[in-house]
Amino acid sequence: MDIWEKLYEEACRVQNNRVISPFIEAGGVAAALLTKQGNIYVGVCIDTASTLGMCAERNAIANMITNGEHEIDKIVAVVEDGGVGAPCGACREYMMQLSKNSGEIEILMNYEKRETIRLKELIPYWWGETRYEQR
After folding, report:
1. Residue boundaries of the structural domains of the chain
2. For residue 11, which of 64, 78, 98, 126 is within the disulfide window of CB 3.0 to 4.6 Å?
3. What's phi and psi for 84, nearest 5 deg?
4. pLDDT at 120 over 90
5. Neighbours of 32 (CB within 10 A)
6. What pLDDT does residue 132 have?
């Protein structure tokens, strides 16, 4: 089993679209990430009527941060039909702010072909580069 299969399976394990209340649904999208330390963290999307929810990627990142880590090596998001999808703009920005090396995060774009892209390719000319250079 390669690492992408492992991450995909971990995301599928927690993906379970469900209604929490008349205002909240969760689990339509699930994400799994691999940290630089070799740990895997997962999360699901939480959709709310007032748009206060969060994407699966940010939920997985919150889980990672809660457990004392902040550097991602690889990430995958599994969408409703079992395919994989690119992170939204908010998730891209969130990941870029984690570390000066975040542009190197590898994102799975096609599960069958194992096609990936680096975060810096999805968010070129990122506004925050100079802050890292100042430290």
Report:
1. 3-133
2. 78
3. -115, 155
4. yes
5. 28
6. 84
Q: What's the 3-state SS for the chain?
A: CCHHHHHHHHHHHHCCCEECCCCEEEEEEEEEEEECCCCEEEEEEEEECCCCCECHHHHHHHHHHHCCCCCEEEEEEECCCCCECCCCHHHHHHHHCCCCCHHHCEEEEECCCCEEEEHHHHCCCCCCHHHHHCC
72-78 and 115-118 strand pairing: unpaired
Indicate the Cα dihedral angle 108, 1, 41, 112, nearest 10°: 20
Is the CB of residue 113 less than 8 Å from the CB of residue 72? no
- Render pLDDT for 77-119 as a digit per residue (tens, 0 to 9): 999 999 999 999 999 999 999 999 999 999 999 999 999 999 9
* Single-letter amino acid code for the residue at 122: L
Query: Which two three-digit tokens encode residue 70?
Result: 């902040």
Give the Cα-Cα-Cα angle 12, 14, 16 (nearest 5 degrees): 90
Amino acid at 23: F
